[in-house]
Amino acid sequence: MEIDEWEKLYSESFSNISGLLKNINGVFVAYNSNVDAIKHIREHEVKRLINLLGCRNVQQRILDYPRDIKDPVDFMARLIIAMRDGKAAEVPTYTTDLHDWLMDNLVFDKARIGGQAGIISNLLASLDVKDVITYVPWLSREQAEYFVDKPNLKYPVVEDGTLILKSPKDAYEPEQKAKINWIIEFSKGTKVDCSGDVFSVPRDNRLIVSSRPKWLRIDMPNYLYEHLPELSKGIDGAILAGYQMIKENYDDGSDCHNYVEKAVNVIEKLKETNPKMRIHVEFTSIQNKVIRKAILTEIVSRHVTSLGLDTVEVANALNVLGYEEIAYAVMEKDEKSIISLYEGAVKLLCELDLERVHIHSLGFYICVASKDYPLDVESHRQSLLFASTLAAAQASLGDINNMEDASAGLQVPVYDQGYEDLKQLEKYLVRRSICSAKDFEDGCIHASTHNLIIVPSKVVKEPVATVGIGDTISAGAFVAILAKINENL
Ligand code: 8BR
Ligand code: GLC
Predict the structure, then answer these.
(1) Looking at residue 179, what is its pLDDT?
(2) What is the mean pLDDT of residues 232-256?
(3) Which domains does the chain show, CATH number per domain?
(4) Fewer CB within 10 Å: C terminus or N terminus of the chain?
(5) Helix (H, G, I), strand (E, B) or coil at 157
(6) Among the atoms of ligand 2, which is closest to the Cα of residue 36?
(7) Contacts of 423 (CB under 8 A, 6+ apart)
(8) Of the residues 131, 236, 405, 471, which is catalytic?
(9) Integer Cα distance of 336 and 343 in angstroms
(10) Number of the ligand closest to the Cα of 216
(11) Whose CA is nearest to atom 1 of ligand 1?
């Protein structure tokens, strides 16, 4: 299909899906909402911070590759690594010292809702999805203010033994502190000079410093847990994220296994009255490999139906599942990496016993679905095109407040580089007789063990910000699919 035919399909899919979203009865979204303090860092600011901390110190720490941030030098090292590679990263910090240092030395440009669950809840509520039930175990007053003020966004509480859905603004814990993450966005072309070691940032991206205070728990009080079957009766699906915050060990003697078990119990409880409920997990950057593996093999595998991830996350996931070679090939910046991405998607689908794996990359999306998925490949494709339109709207406007904002994404052209990149995968699949060139170009493939949907995506040349676009893509495609499934009922 030529690019202009894709553009036409984009408009048709957007109008089809936006008209169908009303078919959704409700969606449950948990766990991680936080406040994002966003700073777009400029060349002179990077230079000032390097000078302040000492270039040698920073260079040494880059070699150490800190997996959590204990001091400003760790921060600077991870920032330079992210800028050098143009790759997104999320690194935890366990004290508030860095927050204070950043406030003194950098200051943020704006604060907005953060966390995958927070971003997704606001997006779905803004698109007028019925009953978006959001849950965050640490709902503070400050956090509640960042949720959109819409009657369809609800927070579950239990009063006198009865489940009530309230606005988050009426449900917060007065004593609860806010979780504030720092998002350092950087632009393509920014020059960094660390004592003669000079590079130019290859693409727009960001480093996230994720605050992990001691009270942070991926958990749910028992009284709410007991009401989950009642809550899930009226909804079609759940989007779960935030498991990366599970720690190996806690001060009170509990460990990751306790929290993994709780996470699985919540999913099973949701399915008690609604066994067919579709559950999507949005993956993310998880530094700790023990936790990364436990999330995939113990929470996602068998319990979840759908997984969303970006390319770095695909490599990370494959790595802990024992597919180091494919993981390595995904990260290689050569023509074959897209083939490995596809192979990796199939491995994840089979190994984790999923119905659907959706990979988003800059320029194209690859989705593999099980043969028995109750939706045709054309509907999957419509869902991906709807998601890409949302991503383009988010990248151009920074925020999507309603369907009209979302439709602004249609003005963004399909990225020709992404369209070109797909040709390598086409050659590979056609050569192996997995599909015909025509099927590949239409993006709808029936392979023998799975279905495959591939679309070129819309990319904004100068995005307002990149944080949260992945969440928007995955949530957009997932609810589009729920709407399509309900249309067929
Ligand atoms: P994560 O947040 O999970 O890393 O996902 C980011 C996604 O945002 C990428 O996979 C890419 O598809 C999308 N994206 C980025 Br980054 N920049 C974009 C842009 N300028 N326009 C549209 N999509 C973008
Ligand atoms: C992670 C970060 C959060 C950010 C989100 C965007 O959840 O912790 O700060 O808003 O990713 O995807």
Answers:
(1) 96
(2) 96
(3) 3-33+116-176+216-487 (3.40.1190.20), 42-105+180-211 (3.30.1110.20)
(4) C
(5) strand
(6) 9
(7) none
(8) 471
(9) 11
(10) 2
(11) 470
